[in-house]
């Protein structure tokens, strides 16, 4: 399990067995196994394991990138979340219309039907317009963010993301 926690200029990365601390000191990156903040490490590990997704929840991912599909499906499997995927917005719309979906994640740049057009199509379809939609994107330009907001996205998850960031974001909509 990879957890990242950022506070001030310090970063902690933990794995199952090791803890690494990254500090900036006089412009240099210092990597050590000793913490300036031992109490925060205990809090961090406690917080990261406390997010639980209720059983039986289903996520639909619309993304044409096989790596993104593999990554998100692996995280969902690890957290016992049902997972469906489609390689474009049109196929995802068909799945959303037929299946019991609790949350939709969509890439923005896809063939056939983009994530923006997919979100607009969802919001104009009364039977499925209440499903929350999260944009999963690397687009950070102001005009892109405005287009996503105008399309009705519930939230934005920026690529690249960490597992903990992903679980925190989706847990807002799967409780």
List the helices and strands and how they pair.
Layout: E1 3-7, E2 10-14, E3 19-25, E4 28-32, H1 38-48, E5 58-62, H2 66-78, E6 82-86, H3 89-98, E7 103-106, H4 115-123, E8 133-137, H5 142-151, E9 155-158, H6 163-171
Parallel strand pairs: 5-6, 5-7, 7-8, 8-9
Antiparallel strand pairs: 1-2, 2-3, 3-4
Helix pairs in contact: 3-4
Could you explain the architecture of this structure?
With 175 residues, the protein is α/β, with parallel strands linked by helices. It folds into two domains: 3-48, no CATH class; 58-171, Rossmann fold. The chain has helices spanning 38-48, 66-78, 89-98, 115-123, 142-151, 163-171; strands at residues 3-7, 10-14, 19-25, 28-32, 58-62, 82-86, 103-106, 133-137, 155-158. The strands form two sheets. It has a five-stranded parallel beta sheet, with helices on both faces. Helix 3 packs parallel to helix 4 (115-123). The chain starts with a strand and ends with a helix.
